[in-house]
Amino acid sequence: MPDYPTLAAYLGTVVISVPFGLMFYLGGTTLIGENGAKPPQPAP
Amino acid sequence: MTATTGVGLIAGLMVLGFMLANDTQHVVVSFGDWVHVETPVTEKPFHFAIKFVFDRLSVPFTALTFLLFGTIGVFATRYMHREEGYNRFFTLYSLFLAGMVTTALAGTIETLFFGWELVGLSSALLVGFFHNRPAPVRNAFRVWVVYRISDAALLLAAVVLHHMSSGGDFDKLTGYQQIDGLDVAAWPFGVCRLPANQVLIVGLLLIIAAAGKSALIPFSGWLPRAMEGPTPSSAVFYGALSVHLGAYLLLRLDPLLDASPVLSTIVVVLGLATAIFAALTARVQTDIKSALAFASLTQVGLIVAEIGLGWRYIPLVHILGHACLRTMQFVRAPSVIRDHNAIEYALGDRLPRGSGFLGKFGVRVYRFALERGHLDAILDRVFCAPFLAFFRGIDRLEQRIASTVNDDQPKVEAPVATPSLSPEKEHAI
Question: So where are chain B's domains?
Fold first, then answer.
């Protein structure tokens, strides 16, 4: 069990990392989804 | 999205629990220096630290951010269903969360500036979310211009603070206070270490930054325009979180206000003037989102005045309560209109309206409120027009230089139908 300051620092890092992780995940999936990861559509 | 927001909220609350259990008021999470320069001229090295602080101010604000972000995020998944740009909305929405959490937890002014910019960027892009219509794009541009002014003031304050103290760490700037024989730097016990003249310069720059972000006078014109964005983002940005960032900045650097009666007086006057202006203007708005925007502004003005009066916990509690209430009102707004119409339809008559209360001054006050204090026109002439002229001039210069370098004939520019910002044309549209 880590001591209190270390644990607080870990939790603090989680608090800060979560929004950035979400931002990059959603940003990445949006870009990929809209710009090229779609399978090629058959010609009409 | 809900799960990740929940993880962030729980981790934040656990930090709060540890702080309460261990009777700690100040937890610092440092990621080292981004820039570190040893200079022979000054004693201290210049450094830009990436540092986050958990204290009595940042933890409640972060918890509020996660809570409202998650709640409105769930609301938005249904509200924005099948809307074009659904993914784009949530990307920008998460960008806003990153900015808010960074700003709330920032332990240095440059970290705060980074978060501040993310909030501004996501805010302007969400105002222009429906970019196939001209009005949202025009209004997003207006928001962006005001944010540039506010950000420029904050950046200048950061530069000045670095120049004075070789670093932008809040705990070093605001110093320590002796409580029970211990050095305490935790909010709100900091004391200002800067001389009076430097406090005044930095304080004025920070007030400009806060006024721009919180739409205080004279920057109030952008707030109703920002309602062009989707309702969920309006609720979180302009009802709850973004609009309170200016007040948050003033709370974070409260020792500067304590050290300067001039600054405190300016903050009180600014807050009260904004509250009176917004209270009058809110009464004559014909659309519910603008009325709510000005109602929010009234409370923000009061919060700012409370900060100027030297209170610390009251404005914080006011922010938390107001943010929750206003978010609920914003997301309820479309249903309220429908309910109101249903009641009138059932009654077969109009519901009673409020009567005038200002006597013979009523007409003048009404016109003042209807024109939103002419602040939009003033903002247009004083800030937006010079801003546009400056950057268009730079653009022309760049084109001229490029054509000279490339040995081309200078390109004759066709008159471009740029979006006008004059309020008269806005009303016509």
Answer: 2-338, 382-428
